[in-house]
Amino acid sequence: MIVDRGLIAAALPDYEFGEPIGSGPHGVVLAARHRKSGVVCAVKVLTAPESGAFLAAPDHPHVVRVVASAARDGLGLVVSEFVSGGSLTDRGNSAPETVCAWGLAAASALEAAHRVGVVHGGIKPTNLLLDAERALKVGDFGFAVLDAGAHGSPVAPVAHEPTARYVAPERVLGAAPDAPGDIYSLAVVLHDLLPADAQPMPHVAALLLRMLDDDPLERPSAGECVAELAAAAARDLGPDWPWRSAVPLRVAAATGAEAARAQPRLPGFGWLGVPARSGGSAAPPAVATSAGPHAAGAAGKPAAAGAAGKLAAAGAAGLPAAAGAAGSGGVAVMAGPSGAVVVSGPARGAVGARRAWVAVAAVVALGLGAVGTGVVVLGAPSQAPAPAVALAMPEEAGALAVHHGAPGTPTRLAYAPSTDRVAFVDATGSLYVWTPNQVWAPGKADAVGPIRAPGTFGDVRFDDTDGSVVTTGTDGTVRVWSADTGKQVGAALPGLGPNPTALAETGQGGYLAVADATGIRISRNGTFVAMAPGVQVTARGLAFSPDGKLLASAGPGGVQLWDVETGALRTRLTGATGNSPVAFSVDGTHLAAASGKNTVRAWDVGTGHPVGPDLSVGILSSNSAIAFNDRGDQLVTAVGTTITRWEPTTGATVGEPLILGNGATSATLNSDATRVAVAFDDGTIRVHAMF
């Protein structure tokens, strides 16, 4: 396809374009960069007029996000986030834990799409992409519409095309793309990724066989796949399998009636493997092996192929047994580092009053509350005890990950800008660096630390360029620490006054700004000099603009913007108060700050005037967190026990607020406001997702 760059540039003037990074039957993909924000994107240039169907892609953490589209002279242009980790092509023989995590992410994305009537129609390895953290994202939503032809009639794939392997049998016969077809395609992908010599996984294999059923009506829904795959993997691989996968997961927990519809239905077993109350066998049905997933098995059903056949053939010997008995309320037990953690629920589906974004661990733990009778130990068979890892505790339901620290309240939280790391000072005064998504094994610390320094720590921040941790201290110094080892990097930088309250750092020119009892100081040529003497700053009330040219300060005198080079006061934000941290948008054009005791607002940086109404967020403090998303069109606030997404120019909320349990004391958001780390007074730090 010949690309007319002039035509594309005229249609998308806000972007500058690079070289082609991919191609396909419908067009090419160009690298692009947003001129104002600098964000790297991918632009699909399509020849089909139906390209607008791409905008049907759901807003979901495991779906490649579409940010803009345009049409010009017969071309469809779709701008999406750039996913840098490649695809699942040539990722065969991956660890079973990794494959299950990828499958769970893809099924969750499909559930979100199917729920609003969107069908993918082209699930295959090349459309399953990995980001820099190895999180899976489903790309190319909308090709189902493109493949349907101009009059809505589907185009049957040719048998020798590489993608035909992933097409459901009914589509080969002419049926239109539908949700069951997506499920079939996903099962083939997962089957191909599993290693041929994988350990016996009878529960996972049984689910794959159901997903490959010749009858589309007999295949599980995407929501059922989420719940069943989480439970099956926990039974076959042990309850700590998500940690061992090292794959970030953001999966929705089904609640209420959804949970009832999403119960795993293993042959001869009740929910989550509890023996059925009457009838049924303890073993999965016999399955045949064949050369491919399309081959027919017993009773006309598709037989397991390759790895799946080997896994399913393990039979009853690999099935974990139910243990003990329970009262009529239903109790489920999961092994934990401090003994058994009990999760109970009086009735089926009683797992909460709303939908919450949770890690796969919480999907399993929440679902356990719906067991009718009996007790299930998630893990290996009784002769091999489950690893001592608690994936989720009742009060932590909804968290992507949880760090259990010293009793007391952690303070001074900071989220790394480009990696999934959280720095904090625990109740003992020691600094730690926690990586929520790292592989964690029993007996192994999940955080780097304790890190100690003379005096006590003041503010804590991450370096924007190398991810190291920067701290202030009551000894009048700034120190830099390796986030990987906890060791100090270089010598301490002296020159601070007493009682440092706030710290800001930028990779642009290597500036550090610190507020102490004498005012604001900034580092120049390796030493601190006075920039704004006498200006008092709220704890954590400093922030550099993204280009490093402005410094915002919040304090008793309101919110002020300073020129970093000259130290001159640039402007004051009209009506802004200084009782909370401040945050710039990614392009530096807007600043969010407190506008009252319990309100937040956005301001235009150039004029100092507000650009939207007051947002009622609750009582603000230095422990609150404020951040824009990576497009600058949404603002996330974490105040008290409530985390909310807003449209700052209209004051409208986006989605339902995330309500945390009692004991939340402080919070910090990552750079694109998709994750929040919250400290609780029991010594835990919990990471939640905001989408």
CATH architecture descriptor text of the domain at 96-237 and 276-318 = Orthogonal Bundle
Q: Residue share in helices?
A: 10-25%
Low-confidence stretches: 49-54, 144-162, 253-397, 439-443
At the fold tier of CATH, the topology name of the domain at 96-237 and 276-318 is: Transferase(Phosphotransferase), domain 1
Number of helices: 11
Strand line-up of the largest beta sheet: 1-2-3-5-4
Give structural notes.
This protein is α+β, with helices and mostly antiparallel strands. Among the domains are: 5-81, Phosphorylase Kinase, domain 1 (2-Layer Sandwich); 96-237 and 276-318, Transferase(Phosphotransferase) domain 1 (Transferase(Phosphotransferase), domain 1, Orthogonal Bundle), CATH 1.10.510. Helix content is 15%, strand content 29%. The chain has a 5-stranded antiparallel β-sheet with strand order 1-2-3-5-4, with helices on one face. Strands 35, 36, 37, 38 and 39 form a 5-stranded antiparallel β-sheet that branches. A 4-stranded antiparallel β-sheet has the order 14-42-41-40, with no helix packed on it. The protein is globular, with a radius of gyration of 27 Å. The chain starts with a helix and ends with a strand. 51% of the residues are buried.
Question: How do you describe this structure in short?
Answer:
By secondary structure, this protein is of the alpha+beta class. Helix 6 (202-211) packs antiparallel against helix 7 and helix 6 (202-211) crosses helix 10 (306-312).
